[in-house]
Automatic annotation (TrEMBL):
Residues 178-196 have a biased composition (Low complexity). Residues 168-196 are annotated as: Disordered. Coiled coil: none annotated. This is Cupin domain-containing protein. InterPro entries: Cupin_2, RmlC-like_jellyroll, RmlC_Cupin_sf, UCP019307_cupin, YjiB-like. Gene3D superfamilies: Jelly Rolls. Residues 168-177 have a biased composition (Basic and acidic residues).
Length: 196
């Protein structure tokens, strides 16, 4: 997948002085885990200073990502159909399966952030004893917690499609640029519900 800076450009500085590497990860519908058909998960390496959960919460909140919590990541495949979620690893290390069973396992360490568009499956495959994650939701949206066994796949897909794009990147604060329609050059605007 392409690496970009946190603002979506192929090179240059990310916002707030960070020069985080960003990787876009797309996943197809995995049956019980629908994933997001339009928006990729974004993996930011070294995006936040490690060891300071309050600073991570404050930065995410400045960019509109609220309802923060501190904990780990559930050790079963799950997703949220009503909200985009951001996970900031502030201490320790963890391996996370993204995209549901058969998705992609990624290693995360303190300072890394992953943005999970609504519908994106995720599961903790194992982490260090000192693992601490700060999670938050775009616009403070209410979120549900679904698994492949929750049923209602088609209804979940409809809810995922109704979630508006995030207005601001959780790491940089830059306005979110809607993905280009298939076949359009990068930067072309798709018809989305984004408020940006």
């Amino acid at each position: 997948m392409p690496e970009r800076n946190a603002g979506g450009a192929a090179s240059g500085q990310a916002g707030e002085g960070a020069a985080a590497r960003v990787e876009a990860l797309s996943f197809g519908d995995a049956g019980g885990i629908p994933n997001n058909p339009r928006l990729p998960a974004l993996l930011y390496r070294g995006a936040l200073p490690p060891g300071d959960p309050a600073a991570a919460e404050a930065r995410l909140a400045r960019h509109g990502w609220t309802r923060a919590w501190r904990n780990g990541i559930f050790d079963y495949h799950h997703y949220h159909s009503t909200a985009h979620e951001v996970l900031a690893v502030v201490a320790g290390t963890v391996r996370v399966m993204l995209g549901g069973p058969g998705g992609r396992a990624v290693g995360l360490r303190a300072g890394d952030v992953v943005l999970l568009p609504a519908g994106t499956g995720h599961r903790n495959l194992g982490g260090s004893d000192d693992l601490l994650v700060v999670g938050a939701y775009d616009g403070g949206r209410d979120y549900d917690l679904l698994t492949a066994d929750s049923g209602g796949h088609d209804a979940a897909v409809a809810r995922i499609a109704a979630v508006p794009d995030w207005a601001r990147d959780p790491v940089t604060g830059e306005r979110h640029a809607a993905p280009a329609p298939d076949g359009a050059p990068d930067g072309a605007q798709a018809g989305t519900k984004a408020g940006a």
